[in-house]
Amino acid sequence: VRHHPRRASLNHHPTSHVHRKPGLAGPRAALLSSAQNPDPPPASHLLACLDSPRHRPASPPPTLVAMDQGSVGVADLPAAAVEQILLLLPPHDRAAASATCRTWRSIEISSRLLYGDVTLDGHSLGPADGDGTARSLGSWLAARLEAIQHFKLWTPYPLDSLAGGVVDLLASANKLASLQYVSSDQGLPAALGSLAKLTSLRALQILVPGDGGASLALRARDISKLKPLRNLRAMRLSVAEIRGGLPTPLLKAWSRLESLHITSRFRMAGESLRHLTSLRRLELDGVTLSPPDASVAQGLKQLTHLALTPAREDAARWQELELWPALQRLPSLASLHATVDLLSLMGEDGTLGGDAVEGGVPEGILACGHLESLVLPMVLSQLPELRPGQLPALTSLALPSSLAERWPASWCLHLPALRRLDLSGAASLGRALPREFSALRRLEFLELRACGLEAVPAPVAALPALRRLDLGINRLAGLAPGPYLAGLEWLCLRQNPRLRALPAELAAAPHLAHLDLGECEALELGGADVRDVLARMPALRRLVLARAEDAADGPALGAALAELRRAAPGVAVDLRRAEGAFQTLC
After folding, report:
1. Residue ranges under compositional bias (Basic residues) (predicted)?
2. pLDDT digits (tens, 9 = 90+) for 515-547
3. 8 Å CB contact between 330 and 300
4. Distance CA 367, CA 384 (A)
5. Cα distances (Å, whole numbers) of residue 55 to 1, 23, 52, 68, 262
6. DSSP 181-225
7. CB burial of residue 6 (10 Å; 0-12, 13-18, 19+)
8. How far is CA 75 from CA 4, 94, 105, 144, in A?
9. Comparing C-alpha atoms, which of 293, 292, 299, 248 is closest to residue 276?
């Protein structure tokens, strides 16, 4: 069943929008009140659309056959079928469809498939829309409270004045599972009292954009209003400053919290974390955290992930933070993500001074023997020699855009469990890998994007276990033979301007399923490439040949693609230029 081809224009309805989950019919549906809508088409018109020759399936399902014969009415369709029909319709036609009978109306307003995830966005509204929007939102939300599970409230003017009423309305049903509240309004502290009524919440995000609320600060007593939210499992708070920090009674009430993410300026005592006994993920950006003592660490025995960006005043001495030696006290910590705010380290001329990148990896991090995943900031002048027994469990290491100039051989010989390595943008490291690099024989994922490479480094070509390799944004003219090809499943060669021909070495990659040659503007694919290379890659399922919009395709490309279609019909070829530069390894 298809919807009627006429689509309602959202431009005529200056209202908020409802976002549905990706993959549903269209990204958003307008919130329309009956006063704003024109009279819906009659039910006979809708049924005529559903049963017209243009929209009728070639072999109608038994239900539609019965409807055509008059033995089954539109109200007799299963609820799941009605939901799928409504899912296909644009907002205006959906309103008309649900007006055909009470059953359809009941299914429409209670459908979590349609309205389980709702976003109210006030960016397109003006002052004149305020009163009408308030009435429309109230009636629309009231009818669907039972269906809404996840709510996003983005409140530029005039929706900021409605936020409290919207939250009160949601609290009347108290069935909401998650709420994202984005606001730069100075009335946010008062709105926290309304948020406290949503005791069903398991996830809460309060985000203040930097441009609109850079000076907005919350006080400890404001945050304390959220103490009734005892069912929270995930909390994210982004605000310029929290004066007085997080009160201890609040943290006690949040004892079930499993994930806490705070972006703000304030000092947090490590001792206050003792009450978060269920905490598994802790992310602090701009927060000055005193190190937890041994007793507090026992309270955090379930913490597995820690992400830390020091406050601006601590950025220049990030290696000296007292927190690093305390990491060994966290028995379950497996993932550490350490970053530094570069803006706080730059001089007036916009460059990093030499003193800003002095030093290496703190000893407290290297001594954390149970770490499995480690991300280090770019502001490293060197990697220290790694001693046996340091980071023995490490399986994933990322040094994106690192300024370190040398990759010590000890980092190849003493990381026996390493499987993932990201050196993207770390040009000095990527171009000067020692021959001992080939000792990383369990390495499966390697990113060498934007490293200025003109050839595949010999130690990389010797790696026998590689499954995914990113060599994009380099200056490669071809590939090197070697054991690394034998197990490759995913290879990115995007944006290598010197690559003019399909590397013949690819025929030695029998398991390669994804090959990205996008934006290699000098590459010319011909019939010989298909016969000699692509046709000899039995696992190939996706070939990316996306070009720049103004690039002219070579004359042989069409013939080559036709031959590829005959030789390997299971290969999907992507000729579209993707938004953004890359697909990620994860």
Report:
1. 1-22
2. 999 999 899 888 899 999 999 999 999 999 987
3. yes
4. 13
5. 6, 22, 5, 14, 52
6. EE---TTHHHHHHHHTT-TT-SEEEEE--HHHHTT-EEEHHHHGG
7. exposed
8. 19, 15, 10, 20
9. 299
pLDDT given for residue 4 in this prediction: 33
Nearest to 141 by CA among 176, 113, 92: 176
Alpha carbon distances (Å) from 532 to 97, 427, 526, 546: 56, 34, 10, 22
pLDDT of residue 57: 42
Neighbours of 392 (CB within 10 A): 13
Q: Tokens 């001089």 identify what position?
A: 347
- Strand locations in 391-531 (E): 396-398, 420-422, 445-447, 468-470, 490-492, 514-516
Q: What does 4-24 look like in DSSP terms, one character per residue?
A: -S----GGG----EEE--TTS
**What type of residue sits at position 507?**
A
> In the chain, what are the domains?
10-115 (no CATH), 133-142+150-314+328-333 (3.80.10.10), 474-586 (3.80.10)
Mark the ranges of the chain whose per-residue pLDDT is less than 70. 1-73, 124-135, 156-161, 185, 210-215, 292-295, 342-359, 548-555, 577-586
pLDDT of residue 215: 60
Bridge-partner residues for 261, per DSSP?
236, 283
Give the tokens for residue 430. 């990527």
Q: Both tokens of residue 298?
A: 């026992």
Report the C-alpha gap between 186 and 190 in whole angstroms: 9
Determine contact, residues 31/140, Cβ cutoff 8 Å.
yes
* Residue type present at position 173: A
What are the structure tokens assigned to 573, written together?
């070829």
Q: Summarize pLDDT for 273-287 with one digit per residue, the tens.
A: 888 999 999 999 988
> Which amino acid is residue 219, in one-letter code?
R
Q: What is the DSSP-derived secondary structure letter of residue 534?
A: G
